[in-house]
Amino acid sequence: MNVIITGITGQDGAYLTQLLLEKGCTVYGTYRRTSSVSFWRLEELGVADNPNLHLVEFDLTDLGSAIRLIESSGATEVYNLAAQSFVGVSFDQPHTTGQITGLGALNLLEAIRIVNPKIRFYQASTSEMFGKVQAIPQDENTNFYPRSPYGVAKLYAHWMTINYRESYGIFGSSGILFNHESPLRGLEFVTRKITDGMAKIKLGKLDQLQLGNLDAKRDWGYAKDYVEGMWRMLQADTPDTYVLATGRTESVRDFVTMAAKAAGITMEWQGQGEAECGRDAATGKVIVAVNPKFYRPAEVELLIGNPAKAKTELGWETPTTLEQLCAMMVEADLQRNG
Ligand code: NDP
Ligand code: GDR
Questions:
Q1: What is the C-alpha separation between 28 and 75, in angstroms, rounded?
Q2: Which label site among 16, 136, 177, 183 has the fewest CB atoms less than 10 Å from its CB?
Q3: Average pLDDT of 287-310?
Q4: Full-model pTM
Q5: Nearest-5° angle of CA 320, CA 236, CA 142?
Q6: What reaction does this catalyse (predicted)?
Q7: What domains can you pick out in the chain, each with its CATH number?
């Protein structure tokens, strides 16, 4: 079976490529032309040179390119993982984010509608669509209230997937995934910034880690478990919308404490707001400080998902605990920085 994965240079693209190759698929993985393309994630997973992986240059904002990709690959499944996915940047580049993250998904839906409406389509939707949350925990029936240009763009793509399902009978499924992390997570996202920072502090390569809102709470799971859920959504009898989450929420501050512990450091917290800091209990040195430059114009304060529907209907589960995930990430960063 031929499948397309957009955004294979990203975290999820790498894990999904690995999973679908293991399942015997031929993967057409798309990447963007840049002056320095990197396939480091695929290389770390040992799949970059797999003969069943075809790397295809593609930009989500180009409809013609989407049509040619769908035609030439002969794909029967398309996983749309490509996006401008960093919430912070979406405030500075709202237009680009809308073009890629919102209208980009429409380009693929249009290409499917034109070339082969039988193709199954997965849209990478997000818990950021819940934003200023209207219910706790959040599930498939919770009202949306996005709080960033990224969240708004993703909500457009989410509803277009549903609209193409209802208008043209396209098998379009939308996975509302809560935050998922791994040793392959980009350094700009808070978990990896923290595990990389703690590893560097432990190794004497960094004095202090600077963060924004320590009170934000997230439902963090392991990315490798979550790509299995994406695949299950496209193997179901009918297209639908599913939440993938762990059902547990922790603050950024708690994740710092957890990562420090995994690196062999005991944290002590002092102060409040912008004056809050975290000290290494053994040395008394301030190793974590708040820098308002990392605050967002509008924040998503609390996310916690209810994955009951995915469990019941897809048999999806996420066995990895946050402690295991955090330890895995710190261990990988200690090795990379050592
Ligand atoms: P990443 O940011 O790691 O990867 C995004 C991918 O999209 C990269 O391969 C990037 O390429 C590619 N991309 C960006 N712009 C374009 C473009 N114009 N044309 C083609 N490709 C482009 O994201 P993740 O792997 O973490 O997430 C995968 C998807 O799931 C994203 O859509 C994200 O918004 C969504 N999501 C992620 C969650 C998470 O917690 N990780 C939770 C919920 C949803 P390049 O390397 O060149 O930048
Ligand atoms: P998020 O992830 O915005 O939830 O989007 P991120 O890790 O960027 O932020 C999580 C929370 O941590 C707070 N925070 C900081 N964030 C970053 N990046 N850097 C900091 O220094 C920092 N300090 C505190 C943030 O304010 C926020 O509250 C991720 C992305 O993968 C999206 O693509 C995806 O859709 C959602 O997860 C679900």
A1: 8
A2: 136
A3: 98
A4: 0.98
A5: 65
A6: GDP-alpha-D-mannose = GDP-4-dehydro-alpha-D-rhamnose + H2O
A7: 2-182+220-248+302-319 (3.40.50.720), 190-216+251-301+327-337 (3.90.25.10)
